[in-house]
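Weekly structure sync, notes
Attendees: PL, DS, HV (note-taker this week)

Item 1: ER lumen protein-retaining receptor
DS walked through the input record. Source organism listed as Canna indica. Sequence as pasted into the shared doc:
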Amino acid sequence: MNIFRLAGDVTHLMSILVLLLKIHTIKSCAGVSLKTQELYALVFVTRYLDIFTAFVSVYNTTMKLIFLGSSFSIVWYMRRHRLVRRSYDREHDSFRHYFLVLPCLLLALVINEKFTFMEIMWAFSIYLEAVAILPQLVLLQRTKNIDNLTGQYVFLLGAYRALYILNWIYRYFTEPHYIHWITWISGLVQTLLYADFFYYYLHSWKNNVKLQLPG
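Item 1 (cont.): predicted structure, written out as tokens:
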């Protein structure tokens, strides 16, 4: 554990809390992509298959349970809650997210650290997480109506990944034989996808204007 990973984990948790605050308190999921939330649920399920078979630490297990529980809670709220689901923008959240799943699975079958079921699922989750934000970004571009909580949620998600890149750089120079190309390249791709959003988010914050993304 180092300061960059801890900051990344805290930022990731903050993004989830912001989203749950919006959904649970305001009873609205306007501007939130259900497609992205479903992809994240799939990411966590396939990554944490070892949750009850490979104990690392109490912290590690707790974080896994939080991410699994929160992702499925968000999906349930958006699909089943009688008030929240009314605010879901199905018309604009039309990105065909299932088209992302098969390429990521095929890539995991070809490029993995060890050709076992658990390792293939882990690689799949890494590849899928790199692109899971795409439906959310597309939805924000289409609606051009980004409230503060949704903007903060996406910004914190991107910041979490950027902090994890710093964590990997730190571990590369402090831990012998720490080389994980799959994680590094996927994390870089994911961070680059946020670059445009970061620019407009910081611009709106600096000028104290409402966040809007170009079409």
